[in-house]
Model the fold of this input.
Amino acid sequence: MKGLEEAKALYEAQGREMIRSLFPEYEGRIAAGLAGHGSECFGFDDALSRDHDFEPGFCLWLTDADDLAIGARLAHACRELFPPSVRERSAMGEKKLGVRRTSDFYRRYTGCSGAPETLEHWLSLPSWALAEATNGEVWRDDLGEFSAIRETLLHGMPEDVRRKKIAARAAEMAQAGQYNYARCLAHGEPGAAQLALTEFVRSACSMVFLLNRAHAPYYKWIFRAMERLEKLAELKDALEFLLVGENDSALKEGVIEDICAQIIRELQHQQLSDSRSDYLEAHACEVQERIESRTLRAMHLMEG
Done:
């Protein structure tokens, strides 16, 4: 059973009744679910995942005022339900289960108590942070505060911010894949060529998520997450091939161009670019020109 399924089963079997019996006046004010840091929150966990930073349990999110009123008592009651089973806590591991303020949960990912309010703030947030803030499941949230912020982070990125990020990714793909990969090889620098290839794949993965209006997770889960996307998910195999396939530079240059061609078609389909060029930098400029915010439009093409 996946960690997310275990968490929900524990909540349904014991957590819900614990809240009802011990905190009946707050039952409709406590949000419950599992989200945040860890492969189990994405549904990517397996047996190997449990060798570190894994704990059975769920999350309960409170308003600041409710946390002051019942937070300590609710946390103690939760600990009685969660069997201790962490085998090893890594240096980057963090305790995420049990009771937390809604504001603290989102501050971990956005730097504020909720969703960003400015274009610049949205632009500054890494995609992995937004992915972690919106993964997992929320099983109950009668009050709606936690879910309202979650919905904004999931679907509320301003279009100008998305376009700025898309323009930057297109410019990076052009520079790293369509230009520098072959030039590094011609200069007799295979290590630099491999770095260029890696940068191309990284930027292309990010581009695919942006074109799906989705948040790309931490790099080690990005290919698995790509399989769930509606658009361009088929690029996963080609992108993986560039990293681990046979060392045939001519073949890989062809794969790079094929990937870029598919990205360009989607840019045109979403009316982000009218350019007929097969070089992605031209499309990056087109996308940037369609940004309404003068501040974002004036930024360096590769910024974002």
About this structure: The chain has two domains: 3-155, 159-297. DSSP finds 14 helices and four strands in the chain. The chain has a mean pLDDT of 94.
